[in-house]
Amino acid sequence: MADLYAKYNCTYCQEDISGLRVRCVECPDFDLCLQCFSAGAEIGPHKNDHSYQFMDSGTISIFNGRGNWTAREQLRLLDAIEQFGFGNWEDISKHIETRSPEEAKEEYIARYLDGNIGKHTWPPTESYKPNLTDQTKSDHGPLSPDLTSRLPPLDITPEEAAQLGYMPQRDDFERDYNHEAESLVSSLFLNPAEDDDLDIALKLAQVDMYTNNLRERARRKRVVRDYQLVSAFFASSRKDKTMKRKQSKEEKEFRDRMRVFAQFYTAQEYEQFLTNLERERELRLRLSELYRYREHGITRHEECAHFEQVIAQTQGQNDAVDHWHEKKSAFVNRLYQFAFHLGQQWAVHTNTPPHLKKKRRRKKLLFHRPKVHCKRLTQQQLLNQSNQSQSDDDSSQSVGGAG
Fold first, then answer.
1. What's the rounded Cα separation, in Å, for the pair 166 and 150?
2. What is the distance between the alpha carbons of residues 264 and 15, in angstroms, rounded to a whole number?
3. Which of 72, 68, 32, 61 is nearest to 48 (CA)?
4. For 75-128, what is each residue's pLDDT tens digit?
5. Neighbours of 221 (CB within 10 A)
6. 115 CB contacts (<8 Å, ≥6 apart)?
7. What are phi and psi of 119, to 5 degrees?
8. Are 164 and 230 in contact, with CB atoms under 8 Å apart?
9. Closest alpha carbon to 172 in 224, 243, 250, 247
């Protein structure tokens, strides 16, 4: 390749040889142009009967067709493409020295890309061409303009906007979140001549803190606008607020637990996320019911209703039996408590001396018969009373007989 860029002179006439030349095989470094060779020129030890060779320094054309690019120009073209890169045709043309930028571009594309060399070097275009999908169409794709469109304006009255400090024309608020965050960098300036590495690091840390505050502001504004929190706040105090579906206790607790994930989704995505979770819970419950039916040998949906009726009847009977057992156990417990209380009272009255016993006074209630209380009598007193009652009976009988 170095021979192609070398320049040769005729040894006899000292003219530059730009094309084909004749080299003597017997004499070292001896080249003749075609004119001197045809004239039979001899000089020094060289004789015109010496063996010779025809040498070409790149003037022949490698490819047939238009352009007539020589081998030297083809090599310069490839060398310039490797050195300056594809597409830099101005510098490539300067490196070739004999061709314009348009000619260099057409020759390279025709010979080395679309020609036989390109077909056997590069694979077909269809084999490596990726299937590109237009993500900017209005189909809710990842890059759809619908996802980054302007949010609708706040649905509030001018009085509410004035109360909130909202400016509709600027679509912004008078006071932002962390309104004094600019004080971190308002008086900050860099002085490379006097500040050392520690001072610069501290100032950069303040700038980083201010940047985080700006991100937090943007995030809060996005959440407020996306979830329409301002409209919801003022709508709660209006008389004409729309009636919403009342949530159950379980659903309310579930949404309270999931509220922390709202910061990672938009309002529409968050509602879809909750809907999907609730649907998953319903499917899990339904799946457990189907497992239960299958365990009891039920394989058709028509049998499920009859099975539930039988289960309800059996459960009702079991509940009635359980209720009767509960009442029975409660009655027995009360009976035991009453017997235990009587035992305690008997033990107290038996072990207490007579002079320490206190008479129990009862309140006399209106419209009630006064109760007659029997004193506790000793065994001798009881025998005396029984004898007296027997004597009274005998006397009454004798009086009746006499009459």
1. 17
2. 82
3. 32
4. 888 889 888 988 899 999 988 888 888 988 888 888 888 887 877 777 666 666
5. 16
6. 63
7. -65, -35
8. yes
9. 224
